[in-house]
Amino acid sequence: MDLKVDAKGTIRLINPDGSYNETTFDWPTPVDDPDVCHFDVGNLAPLDNGEITYSLHNDGSRGGVITSITVSPYTEGEGLNPEPETAMPPTGIGDTDLDAELDEQLHIMMWNETDGDNVYNATLGEMILLDGKVKDVLSNTTATECSIMNQLDAGQTKYVGFKWWVQDHGVLSNEIMGDWVQFDITFNMDQLKLTAPSFNVTEKWHAATVEKGVALPIIVNVENTGDIGGSVAVSVAYAGAASGTVGPVSVTIAGHANANVTLSWTPTVVGSYTLTATAGSSSKGPQPVEVTPRPVSLTSPPRFMTPVYLWDHRNLST
Ligand SMILES: [Ca+2]
Ligand SMILES: [Ca+2]
Ligand SMILES: [Ca+2]
Ligand SMILES: [Ca+2]
What we know:
The chain is mostly beta strands. It has 4 helices and 19 strands. It has helices at 83-86, 102-105, 134-137, 313-317, and strands at residues 3-14, 20-27, 36-42, 49-58, 64-71, 75-77, 106-113, 128-133, 144-152, 157-166, 180-191, 199-203, 209-211, 216-224, 230-240, 244-253, 257-265, 271-279, 282-292. The structure holds calcium ion (4 copies).
């Protein structure tokens, strides 16, 4: 499967006076690992925030399904520990242990982005995959799986939205100075499972009687219940006073589609018959049919014999 993921977005670093510095980025698909995106933030301050749109592109020739998004165990570090962090007011006893605090103050949100605006829209059915502080929604020992089930046809692109922000905890936020958090996001695509062609046949035609010597259309409906199109041989067998088979005719039907197939049978013997339609290995029937004598129309007036009398004129003349 050829899933390529790129990421573009914005980072906003908030200044003490409330203004902010905004940086945009548009990272192409990583060459070495085209479905893994690395998330890495550090040196953040309260209210810093950012957003990322992950574009998921099926670069293969077969349909796929984004089945899950795997977030690796996160790693964290204290990074720099300047004096405001290690001697936080009001106690003067600061953050000096090895357990960084950014994971407790960094909020992340990820959702199935359907309209591409990178705004979570509940009314569009966009589904939240992660929402909470890193420490609460991810683990630093095991991976986190988000189920998504998003069909991605060959050549198609879909999106996953992502936002992050540092919550404001006032003066205690000094404890995140220099701290960093990292994790990898892996997008998992499986090949779309397609079922092979499978045919059902249904008698569409039904006539109680037909006439001897007259061609009879036999119409059957053949349905392909598989995902993939295919061809199938359709035939009708008849049993009765005379027996035989008409067809087969080959018909090609797309996946999840049906078609009417017409065959023609000319009964030659008067009697009662049953017809059985078959498409591939599926059959439907028997369907009874009565063959009646064909009426004979008279093409000339009836001829009547005229008696002929022979007279012996000799007798009459005596
Ligand atoms: Ca630190
Ligand atoms: Ca921590
Ligand atoms: Ca949206
Ligand atoms: Ca810290």
